[in-house]
Amino acid sequence: MKKILTGWPGWLLLFAAVASLLIISYQRSSKPLTADQRTQSIAERIACPVCDGESVAESRAPAARDIRADIAKYVNDGQLSDEQIITKIDDASVQDLRLTPNGSGIDLLVWFLPAVAFAGAVAGLTMAFLKWRRPIPDHGPTDDDREVVAAAMRNGDGETNDGFSDGR
Fold it and tell me: Which pLDDT score, from 0 to 100, does residue 82 have?
């Protein structure tokens, strides 16, 4: 049993478990069921224009209340998608109100490249650790090694080939 958990089957089992949990969590949070949940979900992805670091959903500022009312109106109309509502509100403001990145362009690169770098680092470390685990082949001494030893042994007066005595 220990061999299964420490070898490749164990890693495969761990990967399958993580992938399953990610899929389940994505499916559970993918669609709000009611108009209020949809309004809340959209409000969490828009920054408050007058607050520092708060979403419209968290803020109690009058500007945030107005934006939440606009979101509720757009949701109840049923004409726009979530992304279209966010774009409409963001375009009406002079500052960027998006808290989540777009799914394209430079925003995608900013979020995607660190994940790729992390995966590359993990792959590189895995390869290095696997290489370090392999035993070093023992080829024995070379002919040059034998010549150096033989020359040192022929010199019988206690001196090495470099001219120093053994007592240094």
Answer: 86
